[in-house]
Amino acid sequence: MAGAQVYDGYTLFCHTYERPEDGEGGVAHMHLIDMDGKPLHEWTAQTAVQYLTLLPDGNLLYSTRDRSPIEKTGLREVDPAGNVVWSYHCRIDHDYRVLDSGNLLIHCVMDKMAPAIGPELKRCPYFIEVTRQKQVLWEWFGEQHFEDLRRCLGGERSEYVLERIRADYPFDWAHNNTGQSLPDTAAAARDQRFAPGNILFSYRSLDTIGVIERATGEIVWAWGPGVLDGQHQPTLMPDGRILVFDNGTRRRWSRVLIVDPLAEEVVWEYRAEPQEAFFSAYISGAQLLPNGNLLVCEGGAGHLFEVTPDKQVVWDYRSPHPSQHGIYRATRYSPEYVQPLLRRAGR
C-alpha cells in the first residue's frame, strides 16, 4: 500500500537468520523492492546476513550475522551478479559504516576479562576504522571507557547501569548495535560533543545511547536509562536531533522517537493504536527520508512502513518471505541512486 505523500524509491532488506541453515536451504536472500513491493533485484549468499548497504557503483556490501561461525564472519562486497569482489574477515557485530573517505568504521566484539565491569568473562564492544587495503587506522575498546559512561549518566542512571549488568547482562553487558560517524549538524554548532566524526553508539543491554569523542576516545554524552527500552539504530539527523527505534522489549510495545540530545527530552513520538499492535522486541530501526518521512522497520514482524511527521502511514509492506529472525534493518534509496545497479544488471 502506498499513498500520495511517499518518498519514491527502492527498499533494500534481508531476513536475518540465527544460523545459515535456518534460511531457505542455507541461503540468505537480499531483496531490493519497488514501491509496489515487487522485486527489482536480488542477491544470495551462502551465509547468514545481517546489514546491507547499496554502494554508489551498484555493488552491495553486507555483514554476516553476529552469531555466524567465527571463521566465516566479516564484511563482503558483491557485484550485481553476487560475485565477491572484496572481503574483510573480522568478528563484526551488528553495524558498519562507509565513511566519506571510503574507509570503513566497523563495530566488532571481543570476549575478554574486564574487572572494572565485573568478574568473569565479558563481551565488549570494539570499534575499528580500516582502509580498503585492510590497514587498521583506529581502534576503540569499550571496556576502557566504562567509567566515562557512568560519569556521563551520573547518579541514579549510573546505578541503573550497574544493576542491569549485575542482574541481567553479566556477560553481554553492552550489546552495542550502532556506530554512526556523526555528520555536521545543528547540534555541533551548539555543543562540540556532537562534532562531525564523533561516533554515536547504542548499548542495548543498558537502554543507553551515547557519543564517543573520536580524538580522545572518551564517551562525552550518554542518555536513555528510564526512557529507552532495548533500542536500536539511533541516528543524528541534520537538525541535530536523534532518531531512535525504541523497541520496548520489556514493556511489550514499540515506538519511534525523536530526541533533543541537548535538552535530553523526547520531542516527537510514533506509536500504534492500540500500542501493542506495533512491537518488535529485538532488531528493527528507522530511517529519515529526504521528504521528512520515516521508513520504519518493525523487524520481528517482517513489517516495513513509511510514516509522515503528522503520523500518517503512507506506505505499508509485509514481507511474504518466511522469517526465522525478522528483518534487521531496511533502507530506502532514490531511483537515481539505484541506476548504476540497474545498468550493470542489464535492466
Report on this model:
The structure is a single chain. With 347 residues, the protein is mostly beta strands. Helix content is 10%, strand content 41%. The protein contains four helices and 24 strands. A four-stranded antiparallel sheet has the order 3-2-1-24. Strands 4-5-6-7 form a four-stranded antiparallel sheet, with no helix packed on it. Strand 18 and strand 19 form a beta hairpin. The longest helix is centred in the middle third of the chain and has 13 residues, at 155-167.
Shape: globular
Instruction: Report the major sheet.
Output: 4 strands, antiparallel
Q: What is the spatial order of strands in the main beta sheet?
A: 3-2-1-24
Oligomer: single chain
Spatial gap, N to C terminus: 25 Å
**Order of SSEs:** EEEEEEEEEEEHHEHEEEEEEEEEEEEH
Task: Based on the model shown, name its key terms.
347 residues; mainly beta; 41% strand; 4-stranded antiparallel beta sheet
